[in-house]
Every structure is written in structure tokens, then in C-alpha cells.
Amino acid sequence: xxxxxxxxxxxxxxxxxxxxxxxxxxxxxxxxxxxxxxxxxxxxxxxxxxxxxxxxxxxxxxxxxxxxxxxxxxxxxxxxxxxxxxxxxxxxxxxxxxxxxxxxxxxxxxxxxxxxxxxxxxxxxxxxxxxxxxxxxxxxxxxxxxxxxxxxxxxxxxxxxxxxxxxxxxxxxxxxxxxxxxxxxxxxxxxxxxxxxxxxxxxxxxxxxxxxxxxxxxxxxxxxxxxxxxxxxxxxxxxxxxxxx
Length: 245
Description:
Blueprint: E1 3-9, H1 16-30, E2 34-37, E3 40-42, H2 50-56, H3 65-68, E4 71-73, H4 79-83, H5 98-116, E5 120-124, E6 132-133, E7 137-138, H6 139-145, E8 149-155, H7 160-173, E9 180-184, H8 197-205, E10 209-213, H9 233-238
Binding site for substrate: 42
Protein name: ATP-dependent dethiobiotin synthetase BioD
Family: Belongs to the dethiobiotin synthetase family.
């Protein structure tokens, strides 16, 4: 089975899609077969949507867009609230069945993996870790349900120590050990905290920093090479992250 990595943000707009697209570019340059997957997406469609950006950066065909993102809602709120807000507000049971929703996602992902003989699947979450998801569920249920391992995506600047360590601790409470974290720089301005944030997080948590994606413009372009990643990133991934747990 394809190695499955679940991109978990420390917040909304932490740069998950940008990191996913950059990883897809890196994999293509190395001849590694990687498929993207966005199990649940809410918000408007179009060329700037997450699923459209993932498709454009990947080896998938335009006709595979529905499988890339099988569960979609047009309203720009958390997928679970877009599906049915009632269970999250104490108003009764959800109208959707989480196992049925997860089943649709598993089926779509398995088809993509089989069709493209994927070595790695990059699964992109929605927002941060504690995000309402369809069927009255929460994002950790989907990490477990898709049998993926979390890779945290965090902003590189001031505040990221707190946000990243809280995400790591919350994952560990749920017995979801993160394989690492990746920093993004979404703004061009300098931030003196960037020089030490990764080291502090590594020392406190034991979780390694696996990449530091520089500012790529607005809208972000794809990096020309993968020198923003640790040198053995893909060998770790293809080796089931051996030795990192």
C-alpha cells in the first residue's frame, strides 16, 4: 500500500496546499509517484481552490478531480459545519454517517493509488487539527480512518513555537505520532524568530523539522528545486519513516 502522509496545519492558511504542491514538484523531479488527496473541502471552487492547485501540481488528469476531492461543500466554513452544524452545537445526532463518509474517501483514494501505482499519498486536511469534519467527526478521526501519519505544516514566524508544540501534544494524546514538521513563510518580511524556532521545537518535542519552505510570492509559485527539504526526506518517507517513532 502507498505510504500515506496527512498534512495537518497549525491553523487555517498555514500553507498546507503550498507545501503539498511543492512536495509534488519535488517528487516528480525525483521520479517518485505521489498522488494528492483532499478528502473534504469546503469553499468556492475554481482554479484557486485547494483541489485545483493540487491537481495542477500533480500527475493526475483533469477528469480525476472528483476522486482527488470526493466530499465538497460550497460554503467557506469547516467541512463538518458545512455538512451539518447540529452535532457540534449540541442539537442532536448528525444527519451524515461518518463511516459512510470515510468509506467514500477511502474508496476514492484507493482508486487513485491503484491507478497510478502510487508510492506516496499526500492527504491534505482542512485547517488545523481540531476542526469539525463531516458526520459529526473531527479531523483526528480522519487521520486514523485513512491510516495516515501526520506531518505538521506551520508558519515559520513568531508564535509558531506555541502553535506547533500544542499541535504535537494534541496529536500524541490521540496516539497519532507526527513524523515531523515543515515551516512555511507566507510573508516576505523578515522575522528574527525564524533563526531559532525549529531548534526550540525539536528540543522540546523530539519531532524533527523536515523542511523550511521560503517565501514563494503571492500567489505562490512552485520552488525550482527541493533544497528546502532535509536531504533524506523521501528516503525517510519511502522507508515508512523508520526510526522516527
